[in-house]
Design goal:
With 110 residues, the chain is of the alpha+beta class. The protein is built from four helices and four strands; from the N terminus they run E-H-H-E-E-H-H-E. This is Antibiotic biosynthesis monooxygenase.
Amino acid sequence: MAITIHLFYTGANGSARAFAQEMVSSGTAEKIRAEEGNLRYEYFFPMEDPETVLLIDSWRDQAAIDLHHASPMMGEIARLREKYDLHMKVERYRSDDETAPAADAAFIRT
């Protein structure tokens, strides 16, 4: 059962976007994507909130998240969060590994 985490990073004066840009340009985001058990690691920008960045971070299971949290990269991430003075809101979801109900198909354009 996959675990998906939505991390909302909020700062001031563009700091959240600068944080995301540094995570990508420094190669840290790519290293996280290469970690065992990582399924997705992508940044998004809410249209109506220019001071927030959404990170969608998905892992195979809790064990993969625990290994990630024990990795040296967490120190780098924490350093960058401090550098950009970011605050976080976290939402956590578990997949049910089921296909979308047939009734939903009418609303999905592929």
